[in-house]
Amino acid sequence: LALGPPGAASDSLLGKAYLVQGDKTLQSSVPKGVPYHASADLKDRIESKAAPWGSVVHGILQGDLWLKTDAGYLPMTLQGVDVLSERVSQNKVATDVQPSGCDIV
Hints:
By secondary structure, this protein is mainly β. 10% of the residues lie in helices and 36% in strands. The strands form 3 sheets. It has a 5-stranded antiparallel sheet.
């Protein structure tokens, strides 16, 4: 099992990183965060587990509506609000950007 540099998550092993977010109304109605589910079904909620607001979770998209994580499934939207947004890895560098002072030959 090969891993990247210490502290860096590998997209191929853990999936992509997603920020758990929601508006103030949603956060007040679901204070613990986005509830985990045992499957990609809203009726299959795990009552004791939630991804806290402001946290980052790693997972693999299952269609457009669910994120599969090691802890369970998370819905991409909750009460009509997008609650998971993909984070761009700080380790990835755009290939078309050159440092200043460098010429492309």
